[in-house]
Structure formats: structure tokens, C-alpha cells
Amino acid sequence: METLEIEYIDAGEDFLTAKMPVNSRVHQPMGILHGGATVALAESVGSAASMLFINPEKQEARGIEISANHLKSKREGTVFCTAKIVHRGGSIHLWEIKVTDEEGKLISLCKLTNMILPRRK
């Protein structure tokens, strides 16, 4: 979280929101937000959101699939990332994750599947 400067800013019964600055630390060579940084943000928020639904002393969440559609570029400012639960099963959580700019315009739409496993000792 520190490397990408991800900060969690809001949570509810079915969502978790974070923000991340867009600057040279997360740019690709053409000076825009790198898709990999966007996916890292989305997976971080979706995985943390699954932790809100499980007992971390007995269970852990593991990302098993993520997909992303990058719809708009961003050079500077802040992006906001909100994960909303689509399916909350005993062994699988499915999240829809939207990455938006300061005006609420969609930058990327992601889907994350987390497997819920017994915690290993």
C-alpha cells in the first residue's frame, strides 16, 4: 500500500473505497497511469474488502482471477477505487471494482474473484 500510496477512505456493508495519487511513480513510459498500477490498486481494494467478510484468525482471501478494461487515461491527480460485492459465498467472493477520476468518470472496470481458504499455520 505504501509503494502505490493507496489510502482506504470509506467502507460500508457491501463496499470498500480507496484512493491513489497519479504521478510519475505509477506512470507508464507515455506519462499516463499504468494499467498494471490500476490492476494492483483494484486487487488491493478487492482483497481487503473480502477481509471485511471473513474471520482473519481462521480464514484468508486469495485472489484467483482479475480482469480489467481500461477505458480512459489519466496523467495526474487522484483515482478512486470502489469494490462492490457481487457474490459472497462461503468459498468464493466476486467483486466489481470501478476506478474513477475526481469527477466520477470511469477510468477502468475490473472484476476480481477471491477464494476463501482456511488460514494456514
Task: Describe the secondary-structure layout.
Blueprint: E1 7-11, E2 15-22, H1 35-51, E3 59-70, E4 77-88, E5 92-100, E6 106-118
Antiparallel strand pairs: 1-2, 2-4, 3-6, 4-5, 5-6
Structure description:
The protein is mainly β and 121 residues long. Helices cover 14% and strands 49% of the residues. The chain has one helix and six strands. It has a six-stranded antiparallel β-sheet, covered by helices on one side. The two termini are 24 Å apart. The mean pLDDT is 97.
What is the overall silhouette? elongated
Distance between the termini: 24 Å
Q: DSSP strand (E) fraction? A: over 45%
Biggest β-sheet: strands ordered side by side in the sheet: 1-2-4-5-6-3
Key phrases:
49% strand, 121 residues, 1 helix
Short summary of the structure?
This protein has one helix spanning about 35-50; strands at about 5-10, 15-20, 60-70, 75-90, 90-100, 105-120. The chain has about 120 residues and is mainly β.
